[in-house]
Amino acid sequence: MKRIKSPRIAAWLLARISGPESGLSIVGDYEEIFQELAHERGLIAARSWYWSQVLKSLPMFIINFIFGSATMLKNYLKLAYRNILRHKRYAVLNIIGLAVGLAACLLMAGYVIHELSFETMHPFRDRVFRINGRIPMGGQTLLNAVVCAPFGPAVEESVPEIEESVRILRLHDVPVRVEDRDFKEEKMFFAEQEILEVFTVPLVRGNPKTALEAPFTVIIDETLARKYFGDENPYGKIIRLTLQRTYDFQVTGVMKNMPSNTVLRTPMIASFATLYQTHGEAATRWVSWGMITTFVRLRMGADPATVDEKITAVARTHLDEEEKDASYYLQPLGRIYIENAAYGMNNDLDNTGSITRLYIFSAVALLILIIAAINFINLSTAKIAGRLKEVGIRKTCGALRSHLIKQFLTESVLITAIAMGLGLTLFSLFKPRLDVYLGKTLNLGVLTTPWVLPAVAALILIVGFLAGSYPAFFLSRFPAAIVFRYGVPRGPSRYGLRRVLVGVQFFIAGALIVSTLVVHKQVRYSETKDLGYNKDNLIILSNRNASRLENASLVKNQIMSRTEALSVALVDNFPSAGNRNISTVRIEGKAEKEGTIVQSLEVDADFIPAMGLKMVTGRNFEQERAADREAVLINETAALSFGLEDPIGKFLYRGNNAFRIVGIHQDWNTNSIHSRIYPTVLFPADETAGELVVRLPAERTQQVISRIREVMYGLFPEQIFDYAYVDDLHLRAYDEERRLASLLISFCQLTVLVACLGIFGLAAYSTEQRTKEIGIRKVLGSSVAGIVILFTRNYARWVFVANIFAWPVAYFAVNKWLQAFAFRTPFGLLPFVLAGLITLAVALISVVFQTVKAALANPVQSLRYE
Amino acid sequence: MDLLTRLEETILVAVIKLGDGAYGVAINREVSKVFGRTYTMGGLYFALDQLVRKEYLMKRLADPTPQRGGRSKTYYRLTPEGKEALEATRQHQIRLWKSVPEFETIKGN
Questions:
Q1: A162-178/A293-298 β-pairing
Q2: CB neighbourhood size of A817 (10 A)
Q3: Measured between alpha carbons, how far is B5 from B89 in angstroms, rounded to an integer?
Q4: Are the C-beta atoms of residues A596 and A635 closer than 8 Å to each other?
Q5: Looking at the structure, do residues A704 and A769 belong to the same domain, yes or no?
Q6: Domain-ending residue, one of A301, A319, A343
Q7: Which of A8, A12, A57 should one mutate to test binding to chain B, selecting the residue with the greatest count of B CBs within 10 A?
Q8: Partner-chain residue, chosen from A22, A32, A67, that has the shortest CB–CB distance to B68
Q9: A27, A56, A68: residue with CB nearest B49
Q10: Is there a smaller number of Cβ atoms within 10 Å at the N or the C end of chain A?
Q11: Which of A5, A18, A29, A56 to mutate to test the interface with B (most CBs of B within 10 A)?
């Protein structure tokens, strides 16, 4: 019978996995059947049989291998266990360091995965897009996440690719009254019925087909249902919301709490139909800017790239002539969360995530893991010398190199597994703290999240193998004779590698410390910077009341005369956090086609003194002067950017109205210090002003506030009292940075701790190795101090070098981060010097402690045996 | 002594039946015939090795043959323990079925 060649790769694989003992005869068996098949049914059938047999048998062969080597495995485990017990200190250092690293890494991985998992719960996410606008204004193009109300239905009707559109209006800080209790909801939506179909919004009560059809209906989530109605069934109940006026809404549904990984997260959705009644004409007018978030779902297979042009074309047929330069485009639902912060999107749905933050967090987590793994490698290689005799004896007794490799790997995997156990405990302990930092609950638990346990198992194997491979492969290399005769082989590990690794650790630690200090400093700076006005005891009061017409000064006078408020001013469009009101003005004597963009707010004569602003030139508004109805104040930046010689007395135009500039006030930070100060124009407020700025006395502020509340209720019993401290509004803008700072601080502590453990173990080991040297030095007359200095110098030098490398990297990184702020704290040299001192001190304490102990020992002890 | 599983029992019987010719391919063929479906070699080897570990089977390497690409066969033979285990399993089976004589009669009719 002629022999036919069998698949060589498959045969090799088979021989490998079935082990050296029976491998050959198994391959032989396969070969025999293969030959038979090849003759009967041809080569192809035989080959495919061979391969499929090998692949199908793989799992069984692996199980067989484990069963077969169970005895040896047991032996390895026993040896590993004994070794751990014998070198308790190293084991503990290793385990703690690794546990901390792994826990940090898991936490960060959980966070990063959460951030990347946005919108995955919506089944149509690949076909859902948001319509964004590109609006040219004053020479720049502003991106806008909202469009006007008629946009959605118009494109749904005339663009064939669009299957469905959903319109959403988002409101913030909405006062709610349920029976006689008042609440304030940070966020709510008005949305069309389709939101329940296009997105995943599961209702636990109510009909998902009709819940949002009628005007003045609302669905709330389970948390709100409990908050408002306790255990009662909320369906059909009435809640009262204050928009510009106060309206009654009927609860027509209860939805599950939305998960934290969607930009649509909101506790309350009212029907969009309501807006036609409350906003009337505004809800049907075509404008380029708008205020409605509009999602569209495309038909299956539609190409989103072609839709951009079509929707822009539709919009241009409706827009006024001067707005026709606006264009529109689709943004995929899945990108909204992660992208927008980077693009400077206006009117976005969520305080959006940032890819930068993801990078920072992943990098930090990875760095900690690297530091921990370095510790592991360092400590294991440090032990090499001590274990060479063991290796020699094992080899003499007949151990193969592969046995030794397996033994060392088993040992390091075992240590990693123990560390992982501890790490998971730490993870569970710190998870709630991470949630607090991030301001959201990550849906992540050791047992409840399916990917965690496999990931943990994979991590144990990978880290265990990586950390153990160096000593395993290095140690097992030498023949027994060499080991016994020459002792420690001069491998690369002896000093060079370990020092470099320690250097890397302190490089990371140093860079992290510098970054943390600077971030912390910038946060402090943000919170305490002089903003140009006095923000203490200043509250902003909403005056959206039932009859908003012609009563602003009535409210103002009542508060002034009946409470102890120090000053009260009328204002409209008061800026907060990310919101600023923008107007286009033209300036007298400047022939500009487009006009200039300025920030605008409407104020009365009391605004400047109430805020504690200072005038530079000119005068403030005067209450009695009727001519001041057509006067404006500008800030210094505006005065500069208008480029007028003497702005006082000049006119500027908003729309068709002319205003005379009567004064220039000092610049103040209207918004957070992320942004520069805009040219700002204060227009005169009229009786429709929607807000009041009230300066409270420094003492008994709470009483004064409740007094104001009484006055407001006296005037408008139906209206919900709604106020906020300007200070709080200001601080809220830095939540993100504050979180980053506190996370960085925790991570910094961890890094330093782990690095410290590493150098501590290393120093302990190397002093132990050099006990005899110390003894001889002492006999020859060296002083304790001399020995300590000799031993410490080396470490100090490496830490110092590490810092030198860390500084420029940290400088570059923090500078990049600081770009997000228009106003940056000067940070000088101090953070760098501090980082250097901290790392040096930590390293020296760890080392000196060890060395002093060794140096103080009586040389008789250390030299006795030779 | 633990009772054998059905597969183990079948393998042991096949080894007895094949006598001096009991090696991987032949055993697999025998077992597959009994069960009416083809076993993967991997599954078979796992069971064989388990039996060797339990010391019910002994294995012996034979000289290489050319049609196997110069690889030797591993022959299997029953040990006394293996014989005992097989016998115990058989006895158990007989006792078990004796306890339900109706079944025999129903089937007989």
A1: antiparallel
A2: 18
A3: 9
A4: no
A5: no
A6: A343
A7: A57
A8: A32
A9: A68
A10: C
A11: A29
Residue A343, pLDDT score? 61
Alpha-carbon gap, residue A260 to A221, rounded angstroms: 13
**Helix axis angle, A88-116 to A355-382, nearest 10°:** 160
Does position A544 have pLDDT exceeding 70, yes or no?
no
Is the domain of A193 the same as that of A303?
yes
The CB-based long-range contact list for A462-465 (8 Å cut-off, 24+ gap) reads A463/A98, A463/A102, A463/A369, A463/A373, A463/A376, A463/A416, A464/A409, A464/A412, A464/A413, A464/A414, A464/A415, A464/A416, A464/A417, A465/A409, A465/A412, A465/A413
Chain A neighbors of B24, CB-CB under 8 A:
25-26, 28-29
Q: How far is CA B22 from CA A78, B11, B12, B13, B62, in A?
A: 38, 10, 10, 11, 11
Which residue type occupies A144? N
| Within a domain: A542 | no
Domains contained in chain A, number: 4
pTM of the model: 0.68
Mind listing the pLDDT tens digit for each residue in A653-706? Answer: 887 888 999 999 999 888 888 888 888 999 998 877 888 899 999 888 889 999
Residues 6+ positions from A261 with CB-CB distance below 8 Å = A114, A115, A117, A118, A119, A120, A121, A443
Indicate whether A711 and A780 sit together in one domain. no
And the tokens for A198? 């296009």
Q: Which amino acid is at A805?
A: F
Distance (Å, rounded) from C-alpha A365 to C-alpha A258? 28
Domain of A634, in residue numbers = 547-717
CA-closest candidate to residue A132, choices A353, A275, A325, A312: A312
Give the 3-state secondary structure of residue A634.
strand
Based on the number of CB atoms within 10 Å of its own CB, is A651 exposed (0-12), middle (13-18) or buried (19 or more)?
Answer: middle
Give the span between the Cα atoms of A327 and A309, in whole angstroms.
8
Give the residue on B whose Cα is nearest the Cα of A22.
B74
Instruction: Select the residue from B68, B72, B76 to test the A interface by mutation, using most A Cβ atoms within 10 A.
Output: B68
Residue A536 lies in a domain: no
Is A598 in contact with A654 (CB distance < 8 Å)? no
Q: Count CB-CB contacts under 10 A for residue A746.
A: 17
Residue A718 has pLDDT above 80, yes or no: no
CA distance A503 to A247: 66
Q: Which CATH number fits domain B6-108: 3.40.50.720, 1.10.10.10, 3.90.79.10, 3.30.1360.20?
A: 1.10.10.10
Same domain, A521 and A433: yes
Q: Residue A784 pLDDT more than 50?
A: yes
What average pLDDT does range A504-521 have in this prediction? 89
Give yes or no for a contact between A374 and A362, defined as CB atoms under 8 angstroms apart.
no
Dmax (CA) for chain A in angstroms is 119
Query: How many other CB atoms are found less than 10 A from the CB of residue A853?
Result: 11
Is A28 in Cβ contact with B72 (below 8 Å)? yes
One domain, residues A521 and A570: no
Give the separation between CA B21 and CA A478, rounded to whole angstroms. Answer: 45
Distance CA A837, CA A847 (A): 15
**Pair A217, A270: CB distance under 8 Å:** yes
Neighbouring C-alpha atoms within 13 Å toward the C-beta of A128 = 24
H helices of A270-354, where? Answer: 273-278, 304-318, 333-343
> What is the pLDDT at residue A391?
78
| Alpha carbon of residue B93 to chain centroid | 16
Q: Name chain B contacts of A26, Cβ cutoff 8 Å.
A: 24, 41, 45, 74
Question: Could you give the CA distance from residue A74 to residue A60 in angstroms, rounded to a whole number?
Answer: 21
